[in-house]
Amino acid sequence: MTLRVLSYNVHRWGDDRTALARVVRACAPDVMLVQEAPTWFGTRRKRRAMAATFGLRYVAASARNAILVADGIHLGGIRGRRIWRPFVRRRLNFVATQLPGGAVGGVLQAGPTRLAVVVCHLGLHPRGRQHELAQVLRLCRSFGTPYLLAGDLNEEPDGPIWNRLTAEGLTDLGDAFTFSSSNPHKRIDTAQLEPPLTGHLLPVPATHEDLAAASDHLPLLIQVTG
């Protein structure tokens, strides 16, 4: 099995939609794991419309995470989980509220190989993220098969979330800076794969101009081999 997976925080589909569509189509993913999918009024309609601009199908979601697939790709055993997170986040004199989180995943089968794909977007509360990740990992394990976990961690690699992923025995597939798209200097997005499957990051075949216009994050293009 060789599978191309695109993990991408699309910034609520609120930036340059034409540039975003060019980026995704150039990546030609079999599966797209979306963070910050459009929501509020007409959520499903917006997500189907977004997927259509990419040449993909919208198949699953939880909160603002969604999974899109190419024609001929079947995602089975879909499970979503609403993720508890602190409602209020305080930092110095700054107070903000957070919407509930979520994670969603499903299982792909190619011949004898089974792979679960799971997408998440952790919150902005530092301690809250650790509780969120524990819930996400429970979802990952529930599929009973090796899994790819990808998403926006909202934390750089020296933090406890990354340490927990290492302790889980996952393989970190790359060290690319992902934020911001116009001036990449932080690594807050990740792709983590459970052995024995192997994978690596591929170069994203898009222009700097399109990447900067499409979203505030850069995507991760992942090749998984089984």
TrEMBL record:
Residues 6-217 form the Endonuclease/exonuclease/phosphatase domain. Signal peptide: none annotated. InterPro entries: Endo/exonu/phosph_ase_sf, Endo/exonuclease/phosphatase. SUPFAM superfamilies: DNase I-like (SSF56219). Transmembrane segments: none annotated. The keyword Hydrolase applies. Coiled coil: none annotated. One of its GO terms (molecular function) is endonuclease activity. Keywords: Endonuclease, Hydrolase, Nuclease. It comes from the Bacteria. This is Endonuclease/exonuclease/phosphatase family protein. It comes from Kribbella karoonensis.
